[in-house]
Amino acid sequence: MRSLIGAVIILALLAGCAAQRLEKQHAHGLAAFGNSAPPGTIALNDSLYYDRSEVANFSWLEYEFWVMSVFGRESEQHRAVLPDTSVWDRSVAYGEPYRSSYLRHPAYRNYPTVGVTCEQVLAYSKWRSDRVMEYYLVRAGVIPFRHGQATADYFSIEGFYATDSLKAYHHLPYPSYTLPTHAEWRVAVAVADSLAHVNLPRCKKLRTSEFRGASFGECSELVKKGQFIINSRKGIDQAAGDATTPTYCSRCEADLIWQLRGNVSELSADSSLVLGGGWTDPLDSIILDSPLPSHAPDVATGFRNACHWRKWDGVRR
Question: Dihedral (C-alpha) 79, 88, 104, 58: value to the nearest 10 degrees?
Fold first, then answer.
C-alpha cells in the first residue's frame, strides 16, 4: 500500500512539473510575438526586420509544394506559382540546361529564385506570413499542429483573427513579410556594410564552397572601403562559372547580410524599380546605390523580404 501511495505521489509531482513546463513554454511562445526577429531575418531597428539573404530556390519550392498539396497540381493556384524558366532562353550565354534545371536541381537549391513577377512575390510573401504566424501559434500552444491542411480550412492570418474561440489571443501582433522600400533597403545596406567590414575578412579566409565563383576581384577594394559587393560580372567571361552564386555562406550566415548588392537585383515595393543591381549590371551602376529600372522577370532579378510586426486592425497590411 505504501509503495502504491508513493507511486501516486511521484506521478502527481511529475504531472505538476510537466504542467509547469508547458505553462513556461506557452508564456515564452507568447512573448516571442513582436519581440523577436521572424525566421530568416535580422533586426535592423526596433520595428524593421530584413532577410539576411535572397530568397532561394529551395524556399520557393517549399511554397510550390504547399500550394500544390492544398489546391492540387492542375489548379490555377499552382500554375500561378510557377516561375518563368524561359527567361534563361533570353540569356545568350546560358539557356539550356538552366531553363530545365536551375529551379529544381538540388545543386541550385541555395541559389536565388529568378524569373518571378512582383505579383508572384507578393503572393509568396503573404503565404510566408501565414506560415510563420501559424508556426508561432503552434509553438505557443495556442493552436494545434495540423498536417495536411485542405482548401477549405488551411490556416491564414485573416482566419485566425476572425475565429471567435481564439479572441483571447487577438491582441497578438502578426508578422507581415513584404517587399522592401528603397528607404528600408538603404537601412539594410548600412547595417550590411558595417557587418561586412568587421566579419568579411575572416569569412573569406574560411575558403568555403560558397565563395567559389563569387567575383571578389574588382570588388575587393570596395570591401576594404566598407561597401559589401560581390558577383558583379558584366564584361567577365560568364561561361567560366554559374551566372548567380549561392544566396549565403553557411559559415558566415550569422555574421553578414548577404548580397544586398550584386548577384541578383531585388524587387522592391515600387514595382517599376529594383534594388542593388545584379550580375548583368556594370559595377559602376551598383556602386551608386540607386534603384534601377525593373525588367523582371529575368535571369538577374530575385527578391528578399522586409518584415514588420503589426497589430491587427481588421485589414491585413
Answer: -90
Q: Over the chain (317 residues), what is each successive 10-residue block's mean pLDDT?
A: 54 49 75 93 96 96 97 97 92 75 94 96 98 97 91 95 97 98 96 82 60 46 62 50 76 77 93 92 84 90 98 94
Angle, CA 27 vertex, CA 52 and CA 13 arms, to 5°: 130
Say if CB 245 and CB 230 are below 8 A apart: yes
pTM of this prediction?
0.87
Strand order of the sheet with strand 306-310?
A: 41-43, 49-51, 306-310, 174-178
Backbone phi and psi for residue 263, each to the nearest 5 degrees, phi listed first: 65, -85
The amino acid present at 44, given as its one-letter code, is L
Question: Nearest to residue 44, comparing CAs of 159, 160, 186, 166?
Answer: 186
Distance of CA 235 to the CA centre of its chain: 30
Q: Are 268 and 251 in contact (CB under 8 A)?
A: no
How many Å apart are CA 73 and CA 24, to the nearest integer?
42
